[in-house]
Every structure is written in C-alpha cells, then in structure tokens.
C-alpha cells in the first residue's frame, strides 16, 4: 500500500513539473522585428499564438495592416490584428521543445510546420518554420518576452 502511495505522489510531482515546463511558452511575445506582439496560450492541450498588438507605425490609413498576402481571397481584407499565426504546438518533455505546430507568416501568406524551444533564457523564444517535414529546410525567428 505504501508503494502505491509513493508511486502516486511521484506521478503527481512529475506531472506538475511537466505542466510548469510546458507553460513556459505562454505569455506575450514581441516578434523578431518588434512590430507586433503575439499572445501565446494553451487551448485544448496545445499552444496557439494570436497577434494582439501592432505598432501604430505599421498602420495604413489609421488602421492595422490587412492580411493582403493571404492565399484565401476572402481573408485578404481581414486585419492582421487578432490574426492567429501559431497553432498546434505541444510540449515534448524529452526533447524540451514544443512540436507539431504550424506558423503563418503574414508577410508572405505562407504557413509552415514549426517547433519552438528555449536556450536557457525563458525570455527568448526560438521558433523554426520548415517545409515538407525537413527541419533543416526552413528559417528561424526569435521572439522576446514582452512586459504587456
């Protein structure tokens, strides 16, 4: 009976530590150009990212830029503000990275497979978008944690 209790206690401790590690990606991030902020949060066990701020210098006629590069003609007139650009990231504890995601680049209208990770500092998030399942065939970007 004591062994079962010990196993349950250890399971709880490890699952709690795993959850805390997975949540490190959550928060508000500046994109690499510091022109917009993206809020990353967990939704249904996976992490998504939505544009919540666009630098007013990037506004056109007093409004945030539209998603004019979107391949869907119906979405070309939609604002980039509120646009979900990151989806499906799930934390992989053994690799210490978030995998299986998709990232949309509104600058070219393309969506890529992606993964994300930290290198020591949890205030700098590295993301890599890639094509056709080949991780080295892609490009990286670095987001910096914002203070709201």
Molecular structure report:
- The protein is mainly β.
- The longest helix has 21 residues, at 2-22.
- The relative contact order is 0.15.
- The protein has a single domain, classed as Beta Barrel (Lipocalin).
- It has one helix at 2-22, and strands spanning 27-30, 36-43, 46-54, 84-92, 97-105, 110-119, 121-131, 134-145.
- The N and C termini lie far apart (49 Å).
- The protein is built from one helix and eight strands; from the N terminus they run H-E-E-E-E-E-E-E-E.
- Strands 1-2-3-4-5-6-7-8 form an eight-stranded antiparallel β-barrel.
List its traits.
148 residues, Lipocalin, 8-stranded antiparallel barrel, 1 helix, 14% helix
In N-to-C order, the SSE pattern is HEEEEEEEE
Q: Estimate the mean pLDDT confidence.
A: 88
Number of beta-strand segments: 8
Q: What share of the residues lie within helices?
A: 10-25%
Structural class: mainly beta
Q: How is the CATH topology named?
A: Lipocalin
CATH architecture: Beta Barrel
The largest pleated sheet is described as: 8 strands, antiparallel, barrel
End-to-end distance: 49 Å
Question: Class, according to the CATH hierarchy?
Answer: Mainly Beta
Rg, Å, rounded: 18 Å
Flag low-confidence runs.
5-18
Spatial order of strands in the largest sheet:
1-2-3-4-5-6-7-8
Principal-axis shape equals: globular
Q: What's the total helix number? A: 1
Describe the secondary-structure layout:
Blueprint: H1 2-22, E1 27-30, E2 36-43, E3 46-54, E4 84-92, E5 97-105, E6 110-119, E7 121-131, E8 134-145
Antiparallel strand pairs: 1-2, 1-8, 2-3, 3-4, 4-5, 5-6, 6-7, 7-8
């Amino acid at each position: 009976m004591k062994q079962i209790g010990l196993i349950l206690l250890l399971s709880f401790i490890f699952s709690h530590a795993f959850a805390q590690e997975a949540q490190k990606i959550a928060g508000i991030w500046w994109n690499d150009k510091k022109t917009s902020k993206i809020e990353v949060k967990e939704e249904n066990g996976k992490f998504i990212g939505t544009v919540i701020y666009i630098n007013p210098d990037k506004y056109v006629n007093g409004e945030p830029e539209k998603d004019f590069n979107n391949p869907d003609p119906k979405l070309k007139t939609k604002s980039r503000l509120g646009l979900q650009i990151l989806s499906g990231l799930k934390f992989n504890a053994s690799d210490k990275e978030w995998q299986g995601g998709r990232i949309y680049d509104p600058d070219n209208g393309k969506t890529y497979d992606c993964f994300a990770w930290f290198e020591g500092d949890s205030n700098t998030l590295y993301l890599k978008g890639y094509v056709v399942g080949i991780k080295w065939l892609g490009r990286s970007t670095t987001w910096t944690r914002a203070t709201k």
